[in-house]
Design the sequence.
């Protein structure tokens, strides 16, 4: 009596098994696609199958590349499915993810294991993240969730689909002075909201400020920087790398040496960012050791020395924000806003409820008039 030969299940192919182990797709997701191919998956090159799944929008390019490189873990963090990598910063890796319960895209920051293994550091970090989660402001990316999944600690924040200032300057070069001032004034509004709640950002820099198509500026990573180490805490090979120099290019002198920091440290970093927007350069170029030594000697330089068309009013504001001595800076984001009210929409300025400054003396030049063409009109060529 003839015996029937049982064909191997298409789900037994090694690459298909890797996909299933990752948790990204279920058998019910894969079987119809494998049937369409009409090829034994075991004989199908993994790259071809991965490409087909990307075209079907069942995998992202990032997921496919990770799987092809042999990675099958770390794609699922509870209700969050990792879709793509966004950036690596001083705190951890940031990923674009799907919130499978709320059906929305979010940003997930995975925290470094060497830092979360210290109970004291973790406790203080979580305390600050919970405080930041109470902040709901249009100029700040919201903290949505704190999670722990199979040994991985992570923080979930609002996904901001705008362009960060470092990318903007890389792509377009230094910004028109009044455009830069409008952006910095909007960032200061977000800082003002944070400072009112006793929160210090600690890592204001171009990469942590985003521009949105709806004309808003958003601060990223509020409450997520408590784990930042003193740059001299561990002298490693990274100290002499250009990547590390870029990460710490805008921190205040007192922060560079691990001293006490407050709102004025954020003011310095925003002033340093302002200089970058105007000139396309960091205030103190070079590697970290030279950069950190230089900022102990002098404040953020005059942007007019690099770019003569920068108005004197803006030049003065940048240098006061970036003064070496914290006592010589604006004492808070509130004072920055008073100095920069000319670059805020009138309705927004009035909504802040900040008392106007005393009348200017007759010999002091008046703030520049608001231009009808906004910075997003310039940005998007409208």
Sequence:
């Amino acid at each position: 009596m003839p015996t029937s030969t049982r064909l191997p299940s298409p789900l037994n192919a090694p690459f298909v098994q890797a996909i299933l182990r990752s948790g990204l797709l279920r058998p019910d997701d894969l079987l119809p696609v494998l049937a369409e191919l009409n090829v034994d998956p075991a004989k199908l090159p993994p790259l071809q199958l991965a490409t087909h799944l990307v075209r079907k929008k069942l995998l992202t390019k990032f997921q496919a590349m990770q799987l092809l490189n042999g990675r099958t873990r770390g794609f699922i963090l509870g209700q969050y499915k990792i879709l793509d990598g966004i950036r690596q910063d001083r705190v951890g890796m940031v990923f674009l993810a799907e919130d499978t319960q709320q059906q929305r895209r979010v940003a997930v920051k995975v925290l470094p294991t060497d830092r979360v293994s210290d109970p004291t550091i973790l406790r203080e970090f979580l305390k600050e993240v919970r405080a930041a989660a109470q902040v709901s402001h249009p100029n700040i990316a919201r903290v949505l969730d704190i999670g722990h999944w199979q040994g991985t600690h992570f923080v979930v924040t609002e996904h901001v689909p705008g362009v960060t200032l470092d990318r903007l300057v890389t792509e377009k070069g230094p910004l028109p002075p009044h455009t830069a001032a409008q952006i910095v004034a909007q960032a200061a509004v977000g800082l003002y909201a944070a400072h009112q709640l006793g929160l210090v950002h600690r890592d204001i820099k171009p990469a942590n400020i985003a521009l949105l198509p709806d004309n808003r500026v958003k601060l990223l990573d509020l409450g997520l920087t408590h784990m930042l180490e003193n740059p001299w805490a561990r002298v490693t090979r990274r100290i002499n790398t250009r990547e590390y120099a870029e990460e710490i290019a805008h921190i205040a002198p007192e922060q560079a040496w691990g001293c006490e920091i407050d709102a004025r440290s954020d003011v310095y970093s925003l002033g340093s960012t302002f200089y970058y927007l105007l000139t396309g350069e960091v205030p103190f170029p070079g590697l970290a050791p030279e950069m950190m030594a230089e900022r102990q000697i002098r404040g953020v330089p005059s942007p007019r020395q690099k770019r003569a068309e920068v108005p004197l009013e803006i030049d003065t504001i940048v240098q006061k924000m970036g003064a070496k001595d914290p006592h010589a800076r604006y004492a808070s984001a509130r004072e920055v806003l008073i100095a920069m009210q000319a670059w805020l929409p009138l309705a927004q300025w009035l909504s802040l409820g900040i008392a106007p400054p005393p009348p200017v003396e007759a010999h002091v030049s008046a703030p520049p008039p608001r231009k009808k063409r906004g910075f997003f009109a310039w940005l998007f060529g409208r």
About this structure: Residues 12-68 form one domain. The chain has 16 helices and nine strands. The chain has three domains: 12-68, 76-158, 163-379. Confidence is low (pLDDT under 50) at residues 3-7, 362-366, 369-373.
